[in-house]
Specification:
0% strand, mainly alpha, 96% helix
Length: 50
Amino acid sequence: MSETNNNEKLIKILTGVIVVLSIIILLSGILYIHNMKTKINELEKNRKRY
């Protein structure tokens, strides 16, 4: 009985870790894309000056 209860806790912990990691990866990807867009916009503005 305690074996299955232990396994259920482990599965819940693992799924929680996976969900948190995927959220972190998604957020960092969104931030990366946003930073690239702002850099591209700055480069475009600088190119129009010359």
